[in-house]
Recover the amino acids of this structure.
């Protein structure tokens, strides 16, 4: 048990000190023969099902050798843009560190040495392109545009020095859905220049608020800027626990991991909800394992659930500095949790999930769904370390 806790503490420390690649729901546009790549992406999404309002916050990061470039972010309705705190995602990571294991809940056991602990958009004066709004958010110049023809949008981008190396089909994909495009210009000279002459860096996180009938994320546009795959880290705040649809679901890895952990628990210390859920998911175990193997045989990786919790008064108190933080993190980062105040809301469920998307998996946008296994909703929380949590 001590070994497991030590490994878990080490895992937390690595999360805090090793920077993860982070990008946005966008496609980068750069001069021809210049490379701008998007190795990963990170987003905080919120969903008001009653008002049909979605927000997503993204913090673009880039790497490449273009001297000037921009990016395009499509949304299903005209968005409102707001600047967010620069360290917003860092603090989300701190907030969602798994809490220490409740040792008293589990029987004494040691994992065998080496055993894996878990499954894991007015070109040439035409009105087919309309600039609806222009402004500055943080350090970014942006324009919100609407287009009715992909070829005219393609020309508009070139005329405005967004040299687009992708195909018109992707633009047309969003035009046919009558989505809006936010075009943002980035000056790499403000960013870090590497020894090889290329640039890398992150810009101010930006929140997009827009009307939407569903909780969606523009994944397809990203395909243009991806070489082979992209890693996506999503924090989703909604009235309930969420998941990705179909083969993208994290349930194939989460359910076996949770079920195995429950097997280590002292039976009388499982809640009624946990006991009933264990009975429901037990028969799915072999199918889940088979699904993971099938996905990997296609060189696809299953999604993983990293944290899931309904935000309580105590959690809000933690952000306000009224409650004690009970995980391992630098003091200065814990004190900055207040950056999340007003964004992370009491009574909402925050789900943190990760998925590596191969390029052939990015042919459409994502629509988040209610977390379910079979005919039952999954409301099981995951905010403290389990005996089967990845080390």
């Amino acid at each position: 048990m001590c070994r497991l806790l030590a490994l878990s503490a080490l895992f937390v420390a690595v999360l805090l000190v090793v920077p993860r690649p982070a990008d946005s729901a966008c496609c980068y546009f750069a001069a021809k023969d210049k490379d701008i790549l998007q190795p990963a992406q990170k987003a905080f999404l919120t969903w008001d099902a009653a008002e049909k309002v979605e927000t997503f916050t993204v913090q673009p990061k880039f790497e490449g050798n273009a001297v000037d470039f921009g990016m395009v972010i499509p949304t299903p309705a005209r968005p409102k843009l707001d600047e967010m705190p620069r360290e917003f995602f860092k603090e989300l990571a701190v907030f969602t560190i798994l809490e220490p294991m409740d040792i008293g809940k589990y029987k004494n056991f040691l994992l065998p040495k080496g055993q894996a602990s878990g499954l894991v958009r007015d070109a040439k004066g035409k009105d087919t392109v309309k600039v609806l709004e222009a402004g500055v958010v943080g350090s970014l110049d942006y324009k919100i545009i609407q287009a009715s023809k992909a070829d005219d949008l393609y020309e508009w981008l070139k005329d405005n020095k967004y040299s687009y190396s992708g195909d018109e089909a992707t633009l047309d994909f969003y035009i046919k859905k009558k989505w809006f495009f936010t075009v943002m210009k980035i000056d790499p000279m403000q960013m870090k220049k590497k020894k090889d002459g290329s640039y890398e860096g992150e810009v101010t996180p930006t929140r997009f608020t827009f009307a939407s009938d569903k909780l969606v994320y523009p994944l397809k546009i990203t395909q243009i800027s991806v070489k082979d795959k992209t890693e996506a880290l999503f924090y989703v705040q909604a009235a309930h626990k969420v998941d990705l649809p179909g083969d993208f679901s994290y349930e194939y890895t989460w359910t076996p991991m949770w079920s195995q952990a429950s097997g280590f628990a002292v039976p009388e210390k499982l809640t009624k909800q946990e006991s009933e859920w264990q009975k429901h998911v037990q028969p799915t175990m072999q199918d889940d394992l088979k699904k993971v193997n099938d996905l990997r045989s296609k060189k696809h990786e299953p999604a993983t659930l990293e944290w899931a919790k309904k935000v309580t008064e105590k959690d809000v108190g933690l952000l306000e500095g009224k409650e004690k933080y009970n995980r391992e993190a630098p003091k200065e980062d814990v004190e900055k949790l207040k950056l999340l105040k007003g964004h992370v809301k009491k009574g909402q469920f925050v789900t943190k999930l990760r998925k590596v998307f191969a390029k052939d998996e990015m042919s459409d946008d994502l629509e988040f769904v209610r977390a379910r296994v079979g005919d039952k909703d999954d409301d099981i929380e995951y905010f403290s370390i389990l005996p089967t949590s990845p080390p």
Q: What stands out?
A: Residues 2-377 form one domain. The CA atoms of residues 34 and 131 lie 27 Å apart. The two ends are 12 Å apart (CA to CA). The mean pLDDT is 82.
